[in-house]
Amino acid sequence: MTLSERLNEDMKQAMRNQDKFSLSVIRMVRASIKNVEIDQKRSLEDHEVLDILNKEVKQRKDALQEFEKAGREDLIDNAKAEIEVISKYLPQQLSEEEIRAIVQETIQEVGASSKADMGKVMGALMPKVKGRADGKLVNQAVQQLLQ
After folding, report:
1. How much is the pTM?
2. Spans in the chain with pLDDT lower than 70
3. DSSP letters along the chain, please?
4. Which CATH code, of 1.10.1510.10, 3.30.450.40, 3.30.9.100, 3.40.50.300, is assigned to 3-87?
């Protein structure tokens, strides 16, 4: 079952269960996917759907930070719940230790020795962790290990 099919099935199940919150989040995500499909005039593959899901989570995390700065508890809870619903469709995220191990391995592969080599490391590293780690965490780990 593709990710798009799974989203459709979960949307139907949310309708049956009268879970309005999950239903609205899934519909928002499906609308984003549909917009990209219309723009590209083709159905998306799972890795492309994952990119969209990651983008949706990132948008909500950014909004969450703003809500926390403003002290809006009602919006904070809503954003966290939306992130939780979308995260069910994402692959298991890597832990910080796993990220550091992959970064260390990549640094050795490309022969990096200083911060000047950061671009080389990031270029080789991002395809390995795509969809499974936040880019900011990866960037921080690379900076720490290249010092």
Report:
1. 0.77
2. none
3. --HHHHHHHHHHHHHHHT-HHHHHHHHHHHHHHHHHHHHHTSPPPHHHHHHHHHHHHHHHHHHHHHHHHHT-HHHHHHHHHHHHHHHTTSPPPPPHHHHHHHHHHHHHHHT--SGGGHHHHHHHHHHHHTTTS-HHHHHHHHHHHT-
4. 1.10.1510.10
